[in-house]
């Protein structure tokens, strides 16, 4: 039992995903509360039914593998249906295959999160392998499951090579956290808008995700030092912006930089940007139509301020 699924308390019905070691044609999933032993009539089954098998089926348009110019790139006839963060299998004509996590998608091209280990000739298949199921809305809103941190389990059942498999994975109902809810969108934004600096990171599959998670924790810690509960802020648009800025600062500290700036210039810019975004997030922005001014001078500006309101003289 390796994976742990974190379900956001009061986050509505949510998808859980399982990655088998090979593609399967069908599967079932059972979500149970294991607070009561197996076989007991009191053991609660939260969900039971067929799991959804990712149906992606693409064909490569060029050779791919460690001997190519980029061992991360997989050219395909069409990339329709492929998504960043999803695990796929590339399968050669001889049946050889390997799983890879998709780190980038563009027209006719997939980018693997780690270098491919074997060579695949043009015409190989890229197939979906992930299984998915829905964690029920009612269970996600069950305060008892959250407060007591009740032990829940997803049991995925399928067949590989004629052998039945029952894979058990833990489920926990937790408070909402940025790193769980928005990590994928932050990764997609960084890969899209900052591709030139992201590509210099370690080729390790989860390198960028680890940086984003560390960035979210840094934002949370800094907000807590200001006695601000980060839970709601991190799930906002401004919270997302702060985490992306923190991630870029960590990337800059590693020595990466866009071609237009030196590493030191990029570091200085990212430091200033992160401080500014964090400041706005922690103090709040002035409502539309109002300006904040200094207490003594009435000049527009910043930390210790009051809202300026026009004075009306009545006769």
Explain briefly what this protein structure is:
The chain is α+β, with helices and mostly antiparallel strands and 315 residues long. It is built from 9 helices and 16 strands.
Overall description:
- The protein has nine helices and 16 strands.
- The protein has three domains: 4-54 and 130-174, Immunoglobulin-like (Sandwich); 57-125; 178-283, no CATH class.
- The longest helix has 21 residues, at 263-283.
- Strand 13 (152-160) and strand 14 (163-174) form a beta hairpin.
- Mean pLDDT is 83; it is low at 285-315.
- The strands form four sheets. Strands 6-11-8-9-10-7 form a six-stranded antiparallel sheet. A five-stranded mixed sheet has the order 1-14-13-3-4, with no helix packed on it.
- The protein is flat and about 60 Å long.
- It starts with a strand and ends in an 8-residue tail after the last strand.
- Helix content is 29%, strand content 27%.
- With 315 residues, the protein is α+β, with helices and mostly antiparallel strands.
- Helix 8 (237-253) packs antiparallel against helix 9 (263-283).
């Amino acid at each position: 039992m390796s994976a742990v699924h974190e379900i956001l308390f009061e986050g509505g019905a949510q998808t859980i995903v399982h990655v088998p070691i090979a593609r399967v044609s069908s599967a079932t999933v059972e979500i149970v509360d294991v607070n009561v032993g197996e076989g007991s009539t009191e053991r609660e089954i939260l969900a039971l039914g067929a799991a959804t098998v990712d149906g992606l089926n693409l064909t490569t348009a060029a050779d791919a593998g460690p001997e190519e110019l980029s061992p991360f790139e997989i050219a395909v006839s069409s990339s329709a249906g492929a998504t960043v963060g999803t695990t796929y299998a590339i399968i050669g004509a001889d049946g050889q295959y390997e799983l890879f996590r998709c780190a980038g998608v563009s027209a006719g091209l997939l980018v693997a999160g780690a270098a491919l280990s074997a060579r695949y000739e043009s015409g190989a298949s890229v197939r979906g392998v992930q299984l998915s199921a829905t964690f029920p809305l009612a269970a996600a809103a069950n305060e008892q499951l959250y407060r007591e941190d009740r032990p829940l389990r997803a049991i995925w059942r399928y067949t590989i090579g004629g052998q039945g498999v029952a894979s058990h994975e833990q489920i926990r109902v937790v408070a909402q956290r940025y790193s769980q809810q928005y990590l994928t969108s932050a990764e997609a934004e960084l890969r899209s808008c900052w591709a030139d600096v992201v590509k210099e990171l370690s080729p390790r599959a989860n390198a960028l995700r680890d940086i984003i998670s560390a960035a979210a924790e840094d934002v949370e810690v800094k907000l807590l030092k200001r006695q601000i509960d980060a839970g709601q802020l991190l799930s906002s648009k401004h919270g997302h912006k702060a985490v992306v800025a923190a991630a870029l600062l960590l990337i800059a500290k590693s020595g990466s930089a866009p071609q237009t700036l030196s590493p030191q210039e990029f570091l200085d810019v990212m430091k200033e940007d992160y401080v500014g975004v964090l400041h706005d997030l922690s103090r709040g922005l002035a409502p539309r139509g109002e300006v904040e001014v200094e207490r003594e001078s009435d000049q527009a500006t910043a930390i210790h301020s009051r809202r300026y309101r026009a004075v009306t003289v009545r006769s």
